[in-house]
Specification:
Elements lengths: L7 H15 L8 H15 L3 H10 L1 H11 L11 H11 L8 E6 L6 H13 L2 E8 L2 H9 L1 E3 L8 H7 E3 L7 E4 L1 H4 L2 E5 L12 E5 L9 H12 L2 E8 L14 E3 L2 E6 L1
Parallel strand pairs: 1-2, 1-7, 2-6, 7-8
Antiparallel strand pairs: 3-5, 4-5, 8-10, 9-10
Helix pairs in contact: 3-4
Amino acid sequence: MNAIALSRKEYQNLKQLVYEASGINLHEGKLELLKSKLAKRMRFTGKSFKEYLSFLKADEKEIIEFIDTVTTNHSFFFRENNSIEMILTDFNSRPDKKTHRFKIWCAACSTGDEPYSLAVQFKSLGLNFEILATDISHSVLATAVRGIYRNDKIKNVPKPMLHNYFQRGSGKYQGYIRVKKEIIDHVRFQKFNLINDPAPSHKFDAVLCRNVMIYFDHDTSEKVVNKLYETILPRGYFAIGNAESLMNLNHRFKSVPKVPSLYKK
């Protein structure tokens, strides 16, 4: 079942299906990866190649599960934290910080490491906040809602925050940690498709959309960036991944000096 002969037409149809559903551009360099992930989902569903392709076109949930297998959900706590530290330093210096409720949107939250990393830092500063965390994938959101992670995911978390906001597992959960309820209560997880779903109507003090545009082509990236621009309050922040850039995109953000992955409205 691992040896899948994917015709040019089948590859193009599959590529278009994924692109329309998620904006992810499966260029030809991803062909072997695509075939291996097809084999994995075929084994899981117990379907032949032709049966699975028909199933994929007819079932919205399965297309999202398939997309999840061809993207890398590599995340950990306090990943690329420089831009977050810059945002928090600014928020903590605001004269209205004791009365303002900061609203943050993690627009591609994966397994929840990013929004929880934000939450513990907000909490440690005593700021009032709420976080909307969204992703296209059902499976990563299920992990995020549970709030249970391997210890290697938290190696960058400062020890005082580990003590205050995480519980170490024992017994069958030896080697794992759980995010405390007081942190989880600040984060609302929701399924969201950056390409096809309408953006939230309320505005945010900061939007993070990190390490997802690496899968998009130029036009899709530009569309997403400008869609997210409209959700940010004046002088609010927009953060992307360190490996990403808004260079060559038509947008209205202003770059933040010395932090290449951070922008302001």
